[in-house]
Amino acid sequence: MPEALIAEDFxxxxxxxxxxxxxxxxxxxxxxxxxxxxSTKIPRARSSSNxxxxxxxxxxxxxxxxxxxxxxxxxxxTMHWPPYTYRDYPEVVPETxxxxxxxxxxxxxxxxxxELQPWIPFCTLKCNFCYFPTEIIANNKMxxxxxxxxxSLKMYAETKYVKTSEFSEIYLAGGTPSIMSTEQTxxxxxxCEKNFDISEEREIKVTGCTHDFDYKKLKAxxxxxxxxxxxxxxxxxxxVRKLVNLxxxxxxAEETIKAAHKMGxxxxxxxxxxxxxxxxxxxxxxxxxxxxxxxxxxxxxALDVYPGTKxxxxxxxxxxxxxxxxxAETEMYLEADNTFKAxxxxxxxxNRFSRIPEDxxxxxxxxxxxxxxxxxxxxxxxxxxxxAPAEAYIDTINCGKFPISKLSVNSVDNEMGKxxxxxxxxxxxxxxxxxxxFGKLPEEAFETTINKLEKKGLIEIDEQEIRLTKLGDVWRxxxxxxxxxxxxxxx
Length: 491
Ligand code: SF4
Fold this sequence. Notes:
The chain is of the alpha/beta class. The protein folds into 3 domains: 10-71, no CATH class; 86-366, pyruvate-formate lyase- activating enzyme (Alpha-Beta Horseshoe); 411-491, Arc Repressor Mutant, subunit A (Orthogonal Bundle). The protein has 20 helices and 17 strands.
């Protein structure tokens, strides 16, 4: 059935393209064109209002993705993964590890907001699109793992850098932290609060799967002081849920969201678009359902097919319906943009539509985390990844060593590129702040790139700031690749 929907959608698009006359995009011409389409042949199965909406969406797509000339898109394809990835970090060697340990012995004088991220690498099963270094939980593993995790947290907590740092957020991430029992979750949170300087206005967020929460657990988390659940919903369509190996049905996901709200918890959900079998119609319903459920925020990700994942294999062998092309994918993004905007959500971070005021504060740029396979460590000029699997992580900690497997000491060029990544999370780059850190303005550090992006209409610059334009927002991944790897970027 989903394949048929994709085919129908595409056929209807082709009909519209053939009928479509005007090249201009002014409102008058658009209105005439809509009028014309209403009076011409309309596919029987579709109402005229649907067709009008579709026409407008196609126009929006063209307007949002094309250059001023309306003839060639800013890029051929969207880059997905942020350009700085842990996959590229070098393996740790004794010298770099020692530099990191020396750094941890210094006082923290930076004013960056900080997040503490204990990491639970286990899941009950593997979603077929998942490229995270997770493990399927085995009996009796959790207790041993949690005791090693606490030892690792303690090792960091006893360093001077961490003793002189205040953390604004505790984020239980992974994997699926929700597979911990209520008691284990609360014990881990209170361990963090006892051993680290946690700000009074701190936020506590717990990530997890919708099938892991019952009323009792939600109540206990709320009473402890958890502020937010981050739930990997992905889609409310049961057919698509099955295709990507999600464990429960949409009804259960919806019930969990409602129950969490009743307990006073905020709910942020992950939604994925351009999944196999998910056309624009299915995606529109997903977005609409999120709005109806009144979630506080939704992170909308286009599916990234990674080599080695089950989904990559299934798509290659035709075991799943095909995904939409670049145009279909961008349309889905614009659909989410329109629907969430109309419902009062604002865009923030890299993929988020939110109504949470805290989501619009300066984000935590320093992340102290630990756990088997944890890959988001970022302290000072160091970025790090922890050892995996869990057994190796536990053994390393029990030998009294920091459980690090990859460690990157960022160069000044890297640091400059990373500061430009603020655009990726929809924040402006303050030019004077850039100059204070690196001794030159962004226009001096990235002259060619900035000229190119400005000419394409993707960024705008004034005396104080550099920020994305509306068009740049659609292509923000590509914009950031330009700054991260100016020499080798070709798409
Ligand atoms: S629950 Fe999350 S971390 Fe676990 S396999 Fe699925 S997507 Fe990956």
